[in-house]
Amino acid sequence: MHPRHSAPTTLLLTLLLSAGPALALKLERVEGNEVVANEVLVKFRTETTEGLSEAVSANNVESVERVTKSLVLMRSRDKDVIALMQDLAARGDVEFAEPNYLLYPDAHPNDPLFGQQYALENTGQIIGGTVGVPGADISAVPAWDISTGSRANVVAVVDTGINYQHPDLVDNVWSAPADFTVTVGGMDITCPVGSHGFNAITNSCDPLDDNGHGTHCSGVIGAAGDNGLGIAGINWSASIMGAKFLPASGGGTTANAIKAIDFTVQAKLAFADTAEANVRILSNSWGGGGFSQSLADAIDRAQDNNILFVVAAGNGGRDIDTAPLYPASYGVGNEVVVAGTNNRDGRYQNTNYGINTVHLGAPGVRVVSTYGSGYASLTGTSMATPHVAGAAALALSVCDLSTDALKQLLLDTVDPIPSMSGITVTGGRLNVFNALSACTSAAGQ
């Protein structure tokens, strides 16, 4: 018997109280949080059924489940959560009405080195002899309750290459879905199906890392998570392209940096119809030299193709507003410049800074990640940069954002911290959970 039409109010209430949840679970979002659609938890000031009966009739309630003596769970046939809360909260016999929030277990990965990844979850663990400050992290664990990543958007690591054979990276390395041809440095280069990027030094399609630095950055962005190996990347699922221009010795040239950047743009365009090389982010943990118009122009071309350019502030301990460092100091609109913080939310002692040039901080001290065929702990703004690049990729896994909107999202959602105040644009440290919560809430997802 369905009570919808014919039962008197008191009989209706009795039937509803015995019904419990009966519909398929549908969701809404309230202030960025997932809630069960059309449902609210209501606490009445008394345990009498008279007010409850009136509330049922007034809100077209189809089920009522008693949670405690005075707390009930109501589901309306047609009112959304906010409308239902507003109506019930206006009643004098209701103490409060609130959403029935959807809760999940924290997404802690089973990677054995995760406990050392204070940047992702800082519980106060000791890193390099320094006791951390709980919460001095980018809030990756709650962010993973929203998303653990996607292969739909490509992050290109412009660096020493990537060890695409590393067991913790192999599943998340971009592979060309077909042969394709680019024109780099006036030369037509055909990259075969299954290749993983570009080597600007040899003008070949093999970006295998012979240094380790690029592999370390890649692991921060997208080492496979919850696979029982090593570490977890910010993105458990990712698509990382190698754009090698730095040799084993570490010192590269401006010309090769430009070629590496241009390759990423052309690869994106080559697969524009299928979006199988949808490069959206370049991670750049390098710098040096003077102003180069040609390099600034290459970064501009990336911007014209909807690509974010995340770049290290550098490790000179100086104000790059007054003593510029490139490419961090170009000021191109798609640049996000990253300073380094430590496991106490303090300033990495050698980080560059600049209240007009450097946008935000991210963990960069004793960061453990993939290196060679194993793992290593490294320090520098080179390590801070892929945290921001990885956070940008995680945001894109759930929100469709332009480069400008993606940049603004990262800057608007930092955690303000004293060590970054007055020396960076935002005065804060990256918080990826805040970013994902903000963009999904804005999108009404």
Describe this protein with a few key phrases.
25% helix; alpha/beta; 5-stranded antiparallel sheet; disordered N terminus; 7-stranded parallel sheet; Rossmann fold; 445 residues; 2 domains; Alpha-Beta Plaits
What would your notes on this structure say?
- The chain is α/β, with parallel strands linked by helices and 445 residues long.
- The protein has 2 domains: 9-101, 2-Layer Sandwich (Alpha-Beta Plaits); 114-442, Peptidase S8/S53 domain (Rossmann fold), CATH 3.40.50.200.
- 25% of the residues lie in helices and 22% in strands.
- The protein contains 10 helices and 20 strands.
- It has helices spanning 9-19, 50-58, 81-89, 140-144, 213-222, 254-270, 293-304, 381-396, 403-412, 432-442, and strands at 27-30, 33-44, 61-66, 71-76, 94-101, 126-127, 130-131, 154-159, 180-184, 187-191, 197-199, 240-244, 279-284, 308-312, 335-341, 360-363, 367-371, 374-378, 415-416, 428-429.
- A 7-stranded parallel beta sheet has the order 11-12-8-13-14-15-16, sandwiched between helices.
- A hairpin with a 2-residue loop joins strand 6 (126-127) and strand 7.
- It is elongated, with a radius of gyration of 26 Å.
- The two termini are 36 Å apart.
- The relative contact order is 0.12.
- Residues 1-24 have low confidence and may be disordered.
